[in-house]
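Workshop exercise sheet. Pairs work together: one partner reads the sequence aloud, the other fills in the structure field after running the prediction. Swap roles for the next sheet.
Pair: D.N. / O.F.
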Amino acid sequence: MSAISESHPARAQTRAPVQGRDRPRRRLAGAAAGALLASGLAACGGGGGGASTLTWYINPDAGGQAEIAARCTEEAGGRYTIETALLPRDAASQREQLIRRLAANDDSIDLMSLDPPFIPEFAQAGFLAPVPDDVADRVTEDVVESAIEGSTWDGELVAVPFWANTQLLWYRLSVAEEAGLDMSQPVTWDQIVQAAEETGTLVGAQGTRAESLTVWYNALIESAGGSIITESSPEDPAQIELGLTSEAGVRAAEVMQMVAESDAVSAAFSTSNEDSTATGFESEDGGFQVNYPFVYPRALGAAEEGTLDPSVPEDYGAAIFPRVDEDTPAAPPYGGINLGVSAFSESPELAYEAAECIVSDENQAYYFITNGNPASSTAVYDDPEVLEAFPMAPVIEESLELAAPRPQTPYYNEISVGIQRSYHPPSSVEPGQTGEAATELIRAVLAKEDLL
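Structure field:
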């Protein structure tokens, strides 16, 4: 999930509970990298001649990727030039356009900005050039674990971590104080709903029938200790086992139902997306919301423009995503964008050289500050300019270390849409029953016995 925003230096009070969980680091390898590198050098004439033009397909942003492309073109000193091509705004349409081109062996694509959930599908289809071992070593050094997991498929790194997004629990300092919540400690969904009801304020989350609903459910089931997919097969969808009816799946549905049926959500909760959630939090009824870091520079920008009282962003606090159960650490959403190199590129080695430039600490810090998109590199979170623009940067970094990617499967689109159909509206969710219905639907779709 990506967010488009501009950041403005400011200060805000933030509190972050410090608590982590161990995740196994996967083996990073590129078994066919040598063969690909050799063929790529041949395609480029062994490195001689003029500059190669690399086309980078980018998702819409506030101009940051185009600026990074220009920076890396200049830094290349004539070895390559990066041109950008704009993809559609929503992730599903981005996926569709790229898959159609790659399925036709389109060699005009060199680099791609990919939404992490779709990376396994691209890798399994053979659309991504293998990542050379030395590149894999460099681009995963001091990178948050969730971004590495989101770039990995079948035990190998298949994309280059770029920027990593996560949702925080944003809260009004005044509301938390009035409710008597100690935000220096982890809080649960039950606690923030109760606090909002007692103070007459709102809890914001994304209840609309869209990818954001899958993001929310995935964070809930992962926070409860489970997963949407418990067993997976890259080649046989019939071998996929779903965890929607597990104890964790039922617990996630209970939280979703509790939030949706409470007095703490707006009447339009079933159509609420990231932007409308942020708008509700900016209102006089704002209390709590789970949302991406863009909400902070958005509020600062509105205050500078005079459309929002400056006291509103001054009242913002940020903490780790709410827990489902008091004794189990939260698993916040992970999103962002990673870079794929097309298997049909005529210059894969130059494309990987360009990718390393794009994801340099300097460029990630620039992108964070100017476009509001957090870095995957941990070093960026110590940058003074980043900390000035995002005082809650340490909370974001901690959240990314805790974050859990959405299900990694070539069949992600079918599973996500099946969840959206089954769990919407959130107020209709019946713990146990909804999980069973969703499981039946998704299995039928994967078996080509039903359509979404």
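Discussion prompt: The chain has two domains: 33-165+335-396, 168-331+411-446. What would you look at next?
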